[in-house]
Amino acid sequence: MFKVTGATGGYGKTTIIRDVSINVEAGEIVALLGRNGVGKSTFMRFATGLIKAEAGTVEIGGEIAPPAPAKRARLGLGYVPQGRFVFPRMTVTENIAVAAAANGFDPKATVAEMLEDFPLLQPKAGDLAGGLSGGQQQVLALARALAIRPKILLLDEPTEGVQPSIIDEMAGVLKRINQDHKIAILVAEQNLDFCLSIAERAYVMEKGAIRMETDRDSLRADKALQQELLGV
Amino acid sequence: MQLDYLATVLLSSLSSASILLIATLGLAVVYGLMGVINLAHGEFLMVGAYSALTATQIGLPYPLAIPFAVAMTMLIGAIVELLIIQRLYGRIFDTMLATWGLGMVFNQGAVLLFGTVSPGIGMPQWNFSIGAYSLAVYPIAMIFVAIVMLTFIYVLMTKTVYGMKARASIQEPQMAQAIGIDSTRVNTMTFAIGCGLAGFAGAILLPIIPATPSMGLFFAVKGFLAVVVAGPVALTGTAATALGLGGGASITASYMSSVFGDVFFFLATALLLWLYPMGISSRWRRKL
Question: Where are the domains of chain B?
Answer without folding.
Answer: 3-275
